[in-house]
Amino acid sequence: MKIVHNMSPSHKSRSWKRRAVVTPGGTNKLRFTREKKDFAHCPSCGQMLHGVAIEGSASEKRTNRPFGGQLCSSCMRAVLRQESENTGVIEPGREAIKIAGHDAGEHVKIIKVEGKFAVVESRKKQRRVNVKHLEPL
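The structure corresponding to this sequence follows.
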């Protein structure tokens, strides 16, 4: 089967997919289409990154959290845990890093501890946070 094609220089790039098509007149031709862009994936675990646009500006391609658009949420938590290697006791007066939630990666000060929860102060605002979401410094 002979394929008739007039390949312009721009189509010689391998970023164009080539598909053999039989036209209604019976001739075989090549059709060129751009390859579809793939979703962003986490480099650590390979999981698809949610909330990341395929096309657009850099600010549209990243979510608003630490390592947004680069790591999935579970790998981000692992990195934040490794950064705060000092495993210590959650007690009032200590500094800690939040490792979960929309304010993950933020430095907070522990005010008081109530069982599984701790009252923390961040950006002049007090919040009640699960102790599992804190890594002491």
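The longest strand covers residues 107-114.
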